[in-house]
Amino acid sequence: MKELDEQERLIVRQLIRDPRESDNGIGEATGVNVRTVGRKRQRLEQAGVLSYYTNLDLSAAGTGQFSTRHLYIIKFRLGVSYRQLLEDIQREPSVRTVFTEVIFESHIAEIDGKLAMLLFIDGANETDIVQTVQEKVIPSLRKNHGENSIEEVSTIRVLAPVRLMRNYVLPVNMQDGYIRKDWPDEAIYVGR
To answer: How far apart are CA 8 and CA 52, in angstroms?
Structure first.
């Protein structure tokens, strides 16, 4: 476990505000020496504590490619292990192709003592998502984990995101793709 020191907290808060900020800009905004910013930032990145992501909004509010999102909960039968599930995912060729297009986000979960996949699936409409799941996702999961591996499938229609990655509260603190400048530093959570 890595506990952040006060300088690291200042640096990380500034990066949450703007992941594209330069070391010089972070130093000016936080009062931390620019060389210290560079060194600490690099250490956090190398330790895997600090990562960067770009979100391309393909929803109706963004590029318009997808207008609907569902959360599919696919519960596996007893006997499908975490290690087996992870290894099968790593070997699956569609992870890099078909699934990248339709799955916005996915997680391995545990429900009532059984492993499950939580899949946020995008589509042009409701029917498109159902077809994708029935024609691509379910057959792939059965092929990888066994014909009788899936015990139950349920779905929830997702209407709109509210909070992403802990600090990004879209209808509250986001403007033009960044956290609003007037959002207080103490409202950006970087751990204890």
So the answer is: 16
Residue 173 structure tokens: 């603190």
Nearest to 122 by CA among 143, 105, 144, 141: 105
Q: Which domain holds residue 78?
A: 68-158
The per-residue pLDDT string of the chain (192 residues; one tens digit each, 9 = 90 and over) reads 678 999 999 999 999 999 999 999 999 999 999 999 999 999 999 999 999 888 888 998 889 999 999 999 999 999 889 998 888 888 877 777 778 889 999 999 999 999 999 999 999 999 999 999 999 999 988 988 889 999 999 999 999 889 999 999 999 999 988 999 999 999 999 988
Round to whole Å and give the CA distance between 90 and 84. 10
The enclosing domain of 144 has a CATH number of 3.30.70.100
Q: Is 98 helix (H, G, I), strand (E, B) or coil?
A: helix
pTM of the predicted protein model: 0.84
Total structural domains within the chain: 2
